[in-house]
Amino acid sequence: MVAQRVVSPVFVGRDEELSALTAALGTAVEEGPAVVLVAGEAGIGKSRLLAEFTRSLDPGVRVVGGACTELGRDGMPYAPIVTVLRALIRVDGVTPGPYRRLARWFPELGESEDDSAGGKHQLYEEVLTLTERVAAGRPLVITIEDLHWADAATCELLGFLARNLTRPGVLLMVTYRPPEAGPLLSELTRRPRTTRLRLDRLGARDVGRQLAAILGTEPEPASVGRVHERSDGNPLFVEALARAGEQTPDGARDLLLDGPRSLRGAAYDLLRLASVAGGHLAHRLLAAVAGRDGSDLDALLRELVDRSLLVTADDGYTFRHALIRDAVYEDLLPGERARLHGRYAEALRDRDAPAELAAHALAAGDRGLALSAAYAAAGRARRSYAYAEQVRLLGMVLDLWDPDVHLGADRIGVLTEIAEACMLSGDYARGVEHAGAGLATVDERHEPERAALLLEHRGRLQHRLNATGVSDWEHALELLPPGSPQRGRLLGVLAMGLLPEVDRARASFEEALTIGRATGDATVTVRGLLGVGSMTDDLGMLTEARTLAERLDSNDLLMTVPMYEATLHTRAGDHRRAVEVAGDGIRLARRYGLGRSRGAELARYAGRGLILAGRWDEATAVLEESLRTDPPPQSRRGLRILLGQLSLMRGDLAAAAEAAAAVEHADSGSLFARHQLLCLLAVAQGDQERADLLLDRALTDPALTRIYSSDARPVLVAGALAQRARLSARADGELRERVAARRARIAAADAALGVDGTLDRAWRTMLRAVIEDDGWDHAADSWRRLQQPYELAQCLFHGARALLTAGERHGATDRLTEAARLAEDLRAAPLARQITRLLRPRPAQDGLTDREHDVLRLIAEGLSNRQIAARLHIAPSTAGVHVSHILAKLGAATRAEATAIAFREGLTDTR
Question: 0.90 cut: is pTM over it?
Fold first, then answer.
């Protein structure tokens, strides 16, 4: 397979290094000649760093460079210096002069002088003179790349220059690969004004940015993780693997095998044997598999380490690059691989390493040994909270299934285990499949408890996948006798799944709590306490549930406790406490291997609390970090809704639109908040008709009456704000009637909801203020008490508008000043621009000319500059000028925002 390597158009992960180079140039100009040494392995980006730095320089800085070649000491002496000198000679203003020694290389400098005593010294002096002469006019940057391949003469001349340059403005930049540390580098390191940089490998986040730039789209987190693991964060290998799939690309393989194939026989054989290990290789295991030890083995390993093929790690070795290991392994013949894997399997039989034994036994063709080892390894993975690894190993067990191999579990038992492991790892869709396979095998008449457990698992998996699963739980309850602990556990699960439909869930929670108390089953009791406590706002019950859950061997249930705690704190308006418990839960979830599943859900609670509290930067960090774990679809959509809301409030309409497109058609009550994002995005884009359509969709969504009212009312507020944006001083009677009708529907939906705590009460107060355009101060006071700066700024802004309409400018100014400060602190750009427009005195119609009104109406129709020009019979450039003036006068950042302002202010009405 030949894979094209595409250079990333974006340079990532080197901001600090670029700043260091800029500082070094400043030192060279202000204090005297300076040196930068850039170290890093092949492909790490040394050349790219220098290229990006020199590209960023002011045109007044002159840059010349040369590179050592792999021929090194067998090539032409001074090769990189000659390249540099050729560029210096061609610089404007440098005319042929007394460079009699340099004339040997450059005839244009005149007749060369025969070698004589002191010839080398004279040559070096001429190089020095030429360099300082060129640097006299403006700063000079000289780059010498790949010093590890330099010949002795080049090193000597570079050392001479570094010691003798005196004119300020010269920066000498040298790249090399460790562990090169010859006399020249040692000398340069000790000199004043020397900066040393060592380029590290990229982290997963920067690899993701690099892949996104190469692919032109945001890669899936799993793809980022896979490429990061295989490339070890080496940018060159990231580029090679971007579109290469699982196999090592041919071009990269040839590069990677160049070093190994140059080894002598015994060392190469040992490297091939090491590649079969797959990762870290303990010295004692390698000695056992290789059948040799002592000085003989040490000598071979020393050669591999000195060649930078292996590196020492703890009690053994790893390949310097995973891709080197892959290339060496893929170079083995199938028979060679099987035999070498067999040697590892034999050596591992009596060692406590079942996962490694399973892998080697499978590759060697010993299916029975691989099966028993994989099952043992799966149990160990569960005990160390490595649930994704448990899923992988149990999947191997099922693939290798042989009823004659004794495991202590039958196939139904393994399917039950893997279904639960999928739930804990967040692989919900696969878990549904495995639970279904178990249910297709079990006889529920003879084994009702086993069938009920599989139904419980499948129901929980489906609930987390797409908010379904109730029918499985109800069927399971039919199989279990009243009062049994298993029935109590199932009742608790059912009740949790029915929430927030409190009326349906209440009886199940209460029965679960009764069974738990009567039987002493802590799991049942915890679920009952969580449900009854959340319905009665009893934090004491949640505290008791936490205490019991901490004693159980169920980290999944323990991670459920902070979700209920955060919900109660949020409903009470205590966002600080909600964020604290959710954040603690996230940290615990990651500790217990549940970061991708329960951790992602907890990130939604933490993110929402941070947004409401006005801690938007922290919210963005929490949400983006959770998305990078590749959470399940339902959690991922919930996280994207919150990020979309943040983007919208900060004015990034493109990011908000991307998030909205990802969640618009999600069918789940737990994602009801998407209606808020979609409706307000349409308003921001100036598409009022779409905003109305989306509001109608929200009002007819069955989830509106099933979810917590504190989750429903923000959507109603968004709808009311969308209707408010439709009205202007020039709105006609028909439009006003349509708006009034929708407001009545919103008010009716509000009246049908209860009031779910302090936060919900504040939302209701704001909703009524938006509908009636009255009571803004009361609404603002509600948000002030809850310390929610964005909603407070909104109410202050709208209250000021109402006062301005009534002619009370003084009171309006006070409110706008406070709102402006809040919006600025939040960096809520759209709201800040709205406030600024009200604060500044402005002429009627925002100072737009008649022609600009004509252009604005066409902008609102969605026409481009060229289309506007054709419609108005003007030049496209003139249309562009009008558009720029309109945006400036309206204080709009985009055409979409100008359209929204135009509709809201009535600026598109026919005069």
Answer: no
